[in-house]
Write a structure and sequence with these properties.
CATH class: Mainly Beta
Number of strands: 10
Distance between the termini: 57 Å
Order of helices and strands: HHEEEHEEEEEEE
Protein name: Lipocalin family protein
Largest sheet: 8 strands, antiparallel, barrel
Strand content: over 45%
Number of helices: 3
């Protein structure tokens, strides 16, 4: 009897920790090669130049190429632009549905450096996935600037080779 209860509890726990069908579909839509076409700051006035993902300034990210593999949630990106380090950056990513009523998703990104394993990387970046289709997606990240929320918006288009 105890074994049955433990087995049933284990199965329920595994189901609760797994991704939902909607999350898996979003991850499959991510699959492929994308180009970051624009970075903007909704609600901001004036010139802003921030460092994204503790890596480089926004001018290096405009036109950068991103590749996402859905079966293992890994990928990479390569910066573009003059005076930008153009080596491959390895990433690990996940999509989480946070509100079933609004369909709002969050996207978590970890940048791996020098062959790091994802489980040893303690820092990552949480972004809102405000739009995702077969041809484009939009990420938004809210950071603190001068003690106030500040939104960074990144627009991507999917590359069709």
């Amino acid at each position: 009897m105890n074994r049955i209860v433990i087995l049933l509890f284990s199965v329920l726990l595994l189901q609760a920790c797994g991704t939902t069908k909607v999350e898996r579909q979003a991850e499959r839509t991510f699959k492929g090669d994308w180009t970051l076409t624009d970075i903007s700051y909704p609600g901001s006035s004036g010139f802003v130049d921030v460092k994204l993902f503790q890596d480089a300034k926004t001018n290096c990210f405009r036109g950068s190429n991103w590749s996402f593999v859905s079966n293992n949630n890994q990928g990479q990106y390569i910066l573009s632009g003059a005076n930008c380090e153009q080596e491959v950056r390895e990433i690990v990513w996940t999509v989480e549905e946070t509100d079933k009523n609004t369909g709002l998703y969050y996207f978590t990104l970890k940048v791996l450096k020098d062959g790091q394993k994802a489980r040893f990387v303690k820092t990552g970046f949480k972004l809102r996935l405000t739009q995702l289709s077969e041809s484009n997606m939009i990420w938004e990240q809210t950071v603190s600037f001068e003690g106030k929320p500040f939104v960074i918006r990144m627009d991507f288009i999917k590359n069709n080779y």
